[in-house]
Design goal:
The chain is of the alpha/beta class and about 375 residues long. The chain is built from twelve helices and ten strands.
Length: about 375
């Protein structure tokens, strides 16, 4: 089983996609304490290192995780806030250096392939020197594809979240892949908001404090599809919190169904918002049942003001969506656990690579590694 290491792993969307694609997740590294705590819950068989990646060397990472052979894959989503078009887009943002750091570590660790994810804004002209300098670090040893711009809804995820992936591989270790191969992937059915939210409770009590982790009975969906197979199943060995999986399978209970206390005035405003329109005051957009969710934003951590992101309005209820509804829209399974508070849950979901998208991309790469080994 090929080994993979997840840098800037967060709660583990990329990690889940990797393990479902067939990789052995040897480790995850991130500085976010709360995200790392939940990554540990969801990936109990994986080693974790809560530390500042900027201060690490490739040798230290290999030693920490006991990797003595050539690592198969290095993946990661370096912080994107400095490149995001929703933010200030400061070229001098210190977090931008972490994108460069990822490629420095690729050059030091020399995995068979690397895959990095970021926001579309990283391709803006003012950020081009950062991208060029980063790719120049690895071009001597890797075949690097042009940036892959991928919309999650094209890969069977109910959100239009669009991201850029940077992929490079050692041609003597990985079968060559072209950009066209990443376009038409199997099992890519269209999943709309209505499909994704099937079975989740709509009548959520305002008083979420009475049930802070949001555990509610959610019967398994009767319909079968690639999406719902992954909502309730497809649990790799050594992945998942045993208690959460047990509660889902035996009692049909899942967490994350916390409500939000809205005033009567807010509810009245939301009631007047039709599908696809935006509330002028809160900037929340009502989802369309037969449409896709827009990109769920993460908000900021304590180090940048602890701002909550604007949350979408439920398609039929006059409230914002719950963390579990957000998780479904991002293609996380019902057994996957997030930090109990809504603020942290939404941050962890919004910062993640969509697991189904990650799985499909990494399965393509997994097959290319396995086929090259056979040859």
């Amino acid at each position: 089983m090929p080994d993979i290491l997840d840098l800037f792993c967060g709660v583990g969307g990329f990690s889940l996609g990797a393990t479902r694609a067939g990789f052995n997740l040897v480790g995850g590294i991130d500085l976010d304490h709360d995200a790392m705590k939940m990554h540990g819950v969801n990936f109990p068989g994986t080693s974790h290192w809560e530390t500042d990646i900027l201060k690490l060397t490739g040798t230290e990472i290999l030693q920490k995780f006991g990797i003595e052979h050539q690592l198969d894959g290095l993946i990661g989503g370096p912080p994107c806030q400095g490149f995001s078009r929703m933010g200030h887009q400061k070229v001098t943002d210190t977090r931008n250096s972490l994108f460069v750091k990822f490629f420095n570590l690729v050059a030091e660790i020399k995995p068979k392939f690397f895959l990095a994810e970021n926001v579309l804004g990283i391709l803006d002209a003012k950020n081009q020197p950062i991208v060029d300098n980063s790719l120049d670090i690895v071009k001597k040893d890797y075949t690097v594809l042009p940036p892959l711009i991928i919309k999650a809804s094209d890969y069977g995820v109910p959100t239009t979240r669009t991201r850029v992936f940077f992929y490079g591989y050692q041609p003597d270790k990985v079968r060559p892949l072209t950009m066209d191969m990443f376009v038409a992937l199997p099992n890519t059915g269209v999943v709309h908001v209505e499909d994704a939210l099937v079975g989740l409770p709509t009548n959520i009590k305002d008083d979420w404090r009475a049930n802070p982790s949001g555990w509610l009975v959610v019967p398994p969906p009767h319909r079968r599809s690639y999406f719902f197979d992954r909502v309730r199943g497809c649990i790799p060995n050594g992945v998942g919190d045993k208690s959460a999986i047990y509660r889902m399978r035996t009692k049909h209970e899942i967490s994350g169904n916390q409500g939000t206390v809205h005033s009567c005035e807010v509810r009245a405003r939301y009631a007047s918002i039709v599908a696809g329109d935006v509330d002028a005051k809160s900037k929340s957009k009502r989802l369309k049942l037969n449409g896709f969710c827009h990109t769920i934003r993460a908000g900021t951590g304590r180090d940048h003001g602890s701002f909550q992101a604007v949350r979408p309005i439920h398609p039929t209820e006059d409230r914002v969506i719950t963390p579990r509804e957000a998780a479904r829209l991002q293609s996380f399974p019902d057994w996957f656990q997030f930090y109990p508070t809504k603020w942290h849950s939404f941050r962890q979901i919004g910062n993640s690579v969509c697991p189904i998208l990650a799985e499909k991309i990494l399965k393509l790469i997994y097959d290319a590694i396995i086929e090259r080994k056979v040859l």
